[in-house]
Amino acid sequence: MVLPTDKKKVLIVGGGPSGLVSLRWVLESQNYTGTIIEQKDDIGGQWHYKGEKQFPVSPRNTSDALDDPQNAENTTTMYDDLSANLPFVLMEFLDFKHKKDAYTFATQEQMHEYLRAYATHFKLWPNIQLNTSVVDVRPEDPLLPDGESGKWIVETHNLATNVFITEIYDAVIIGTGKNSYPYQTPIQDLEKFQGKVMHCKYFKNPKDFKGKNVVCVGLGPSSADLALLLSTEANKVTVCHKFAYGFKLGLLPSNVDELKPIKLVTSDGIITENDEVVPCDVIILCTGYGLKFPFLDPSCGVTVIDNKYVPNLYKMTTFTKRPNLSILNMCYRSPEYILMEIQARFAVSCLDGKTKLPSYEEMEAAVKEEEDEKKKQGIPISLWFQIGEFGVGVWKYFWRIAEEAGILQEFKHGPLLEQMYGTIILRIFGKLALYKQDKVKIVNDNTWEVTLSSRPEFPDSKPEKIIMTANPDFTATVEKVEIVDP
Ligand SMILES: Cc1cc2nc3c(=O)[nH]c(=O)nc-3n(C[C@H](O)[C@H](O)[C@H](O)COP(=O)(O)OP(=O)(O)OC[C@H]3O[C@@H](n4cnc5c(N)ncnc54)[C@H](O)[C@@H]3O)c2cc1C
Question: Which InterPro entries match (predicted)?
């Protein structure tokens, strides 16, 4: 492990994309160096998956996660045949691009390869410790007043050697992700169902549902992807959700339907709020994930409300009570690679003192102001980390933090990212059956194209191309052209 003694040490928990981009920028710092501690046998986070359902974890980190009857900690959330739901331009870090024209929607293996190549390119490997769980993090001086950063006592468990080690770190960045602990909202009479009930975390392969009638609960990336995959094997897939809009806006595979939310469950199916009776064999809860940090001692002061919201996070990143602790990638419904990079750069810039953090009181006041605004709008706490919806809302947050981290000028293509994200989200919810055949092409630094796929059996799908051009004033011009002879 390369840790020169003249530099302060940052513990980075987790070797997923959040951890990797953090380490890359910590290593650029004049004042800090860092180590990623990753419990799995490779980096990549969710993208490290070789068909295995389980992986070893420290027993110190296991618990009855969110009343989950199965052990969420050591079950992978990934599944077979997954390809990204966003094109490569939204799934890469600023200074390390995917291979040109290799794919539009990378497969899980290609994303894993990309992340490993990132680690190699930026020489991160010597500062990564695999097969090791962080099992305890606590402040060296728990009596420090709020707003003051002290050192951290960190205990790790080497899963290969079964050795526990305690070390002192000067700062902590948490990149343990938000897709590990199943989150489930109550459904009336669910316990009466005689078929199988499962959270989407435990979905691994559509073949397990051959010929079955499946109900997916919820409208989000998981139900969109599962509906598509299940449609290839299941007899019928019904997506039940509360939104007025939904996939119906567009094209669905012929054996996929969407209905109102479940009113109640019977022994052999569900009844929707519109009193439609849907017999089914399996109910899959695509109801999202909760947040949990089993390795943080209560003396750290980090809490989680309603399994979904971490209070005292300035800019949804910096822990106000101890500003040398950052938690990344808690926000959702946003393009995560951009989120992770901006938050990591913000966290490192704050540690380095390049970005001056306000006082504890000012940071708390800023957090409270945002919380009050959400309360006023009637947004439940469980949605306070949702920074966007259908591609809208996220960018204001992104560009504000990027500016504070001093990296806004590195996002010259920012308006193209915005347009691309909005376009793809509309395609997912408008043309679910088609969007993964869309092709994204980088014409040059300022111009990107999306060729929209079309199929004759879907009369309202036209062969079209969307051309996006970045303008010097941080806007983009978007042109839609019909492809005459596809
Ligand atoms: C099925 C699925 C599909 C997805 N599809 C997309 C997509 O198409 N596009 C997209 O942008 N995003 C997608 N995501 C979101 C995905 O989570 C992000 O792309 C990205 O992986 C988040 O990175 P992360 O580093 O924050 O968290 P993760 O990838 O979850 O990595 C966290 C890492 O922390 C490690 N860890 C946790 N606790 C400890 C501990 N105590 N000690 C040591 N190590 C620990 C874990 O082992 C893991 O390696 C998908 C997620 C899932 C689950």
Answer: FAD/NAD-bd_sf (IPR036188), Flavin_mOase (IPR000960), Flavin_mOase-like (IPR020946), FMO-like (IPR050346)
Rounded CA separation 166/466 (Å): 54
38 lines ligand 1 (CB under 6 A): yes
Q: Are residues 159 and 56 in contact, defined by beta-carbon separation less than 8 angstroms?
A: yes
Number of H helices, E strands in the chain: 7, 24
pLDDT at residue 67, as a whole number: 45
369 and 240, same structural domain?
Answer: no
Are residues 128 and 36 both part of a single domain? Answer: yes
State if pTM tops 0.85: yes
The reply to whether 99 and 130 lie within a common domain is yes
- pLDDT exceeding 90 applies to what percent of the chain? 80
Which residue's CA lies nearest to atom 50 of ligand 1?
Answer: 46
Mutate to test the pocket of ligand 1, among 61, 109, 176 (most ligand atoms within 8 A of CB): 176
CATH number of 360's domain: 3.50.50.60
3-class DSSP state of 168: strand
For 51-97, how does the pLDDT look when each residue is reduced to its tens digit (9 = 90+)? Answer: 888 888 888 887 554 444 457 778 889 999 999 999 999 999 999 99
Range of the domain at 451: 414-482
Tokens encoding 393: 């809302």
Judge if 234 and 168 occupy the same domain. Answer: no
Q: State how far the Cα of 247 lies from the Cα of 117, in Å rounded to an integer.
A: 36
- The response to whether residue 87 sits with its C-beta less than 6 Å from ligand 1 reads no
Distances (CA, A) of 107 to 43, 55, 333: 16, 21, 20
User: How many distinct structural domains can be found in the chain?
Assistant: 3
Handedness of CA 454, 99, 331, 368 (dihedral sign): negative
Q: Is 388 in the pocket of ligand 1 (CB under 6 A)?
A: no
Amino acid present at 443: V
Considering the domain architecture, whether residues 13 and 139 belong to the same structural domain is answered as: yes
Cβ within 8 Å of residue 95, ≥6 positions away: none
**pLDDT of the residue at 66:** 41
Q: Is 478 helix (H, G, I), strand (E, B) or coil?
A: strand
17 & 70 share domain: yes
Nearest-CA residue for atom 2 of ligand 1: 78
Strand partners of residue 217: 240, 285
Q: Counting atoms of ligand 1 from 1, which one is nearest the CA of 47?
A: 21
Query: Are residues 154 and 30 part of one domain?
Result: yes
Question: In the listed set 370, 391, 410, which residue is the last one of a domain according to the structure?
Answer: 410
Ligand 1 contact via 258 beta carbon (within 6 Å): no
Report whether residue 75 contacts ligand 1, using a CB cutoff of 6 Å. no
Q: In this structure, which amino acid lies at residue 294?
A: P
Q: Are residues 275 and 344 part of one domain? A: no
